[in-house]
Structures are given as C-alpha cells and as structure tokens.
Design goal:
alpha+beta, two-stranded antiparallel ribbon, about 25% helix, 4 helices, 6 strands, about 150 residues, single chain
Length: about 150
C-alpha cells in the first residue's frame, strides 16, 4: 500500500494514492475487497467505482456538488443562470469552490475533491471568498475527514 498523495505508475498511466489501496490488481480501490475479473478494473462493483469517482475525480465530484446544492449558490441562494457562450461552450454562473484550497495540487484526481470540501457559489460570492484575507473556516468534521484521507 502506498502513502496518500504519492504518485505511482499503474499499467503505463500515472496515478496518485488517494485511499492507499491503489495500484494492486484484484483489490478494490474503494473498499479494499479482493475480487477477480477478466478485464482490468479498479473497483469490485460499479457502485464502488461511482463512489470512488464522486469522492476523488473532479468532474464527477463537481457535478455531484451542483446536484446536492440544487443548482443554487450555497451562500446567497441565487439559482443557476448562464453567462456567455453558445451550445456546448455555454458557461454557468455557478462555480464549485474547494474550501480547503488545492495549493498547486492537481484538480483532476484529489483527496480535496471529497464532497464535504466542495461548496457551490455564484461568481460574485466566489469572488468575495477569494478576496477574504482569512480563508473560510471549515467544519471540524470535514477537515478531519480530508486529513484522514490524505
């Protein structure tokens, strides 16, 4: 088992240890259960793959945070609207904010993408949060959960 945050190569791709169980064939990266499969997979079942991605993969985690917030800003309650762009390139005015900042860490797969560390904010509230001298105080339970995952 690897150290949380450390990178490793698995089948010619670079990964980062997020649960400590990554990189071992036949061990579920989410629950640690031993499984057999004819094809290469990281988790023992589709539900565990979904949970793993929801907690660590940026696209899945940010989408889940938006759904959890009901597509509204969690600070002011403003509903989702759109600014600029056409079709596929249409941009939302809601952004998903990391409460504990990434500080240069990769956003794609990260321990800091866990649901308790993500907050949905409109562009204005997100700007106010970034300008504050003191970072947003995180609930002790969330901070402890993130630190345990690291």
């Amino acid at each position: 088992m690897g150290e949380i945050g450390q990178t490793f190569i698995y089948h010619r791709k670079q990964y980062r240890y997020l649960t400590g169980r990554e990189g071992i064939d036949g061990i579920c990266w989410w629950c640690g259960r031993v499984f057999t499969s004819k094809r290469r997979r990281h988790c023992c079942c589709p539900e565990h793959t979904t949970e793993y991605n929801r907690h660590f993969e940026w696209r899945a985690a940010s989408k889940w945070a938006l759904e959890r917030a009901g597509h509204k800003c969690e600070e002011c309650g403003r509903p989702e609207g759109y600014r600029g762009g056409v079709g596929y390139y249409c941009k939302s005015d809601l952004e998903v904010h990391h409460i504990i900042p990434l500080n240069g860490e990769s956003r794609f797969y990260s321990v800091l993408n866990c649901p308790c560390n993500l907050k949905v904010l409109c562009v204005e509230c997100h700007g106010k949060t970034r300008r504050k001298k003191d970072k947003v105080t995180v609930a002790l339970g969330c901070r402890q959960e993130v630190m345990e995952l690291r």
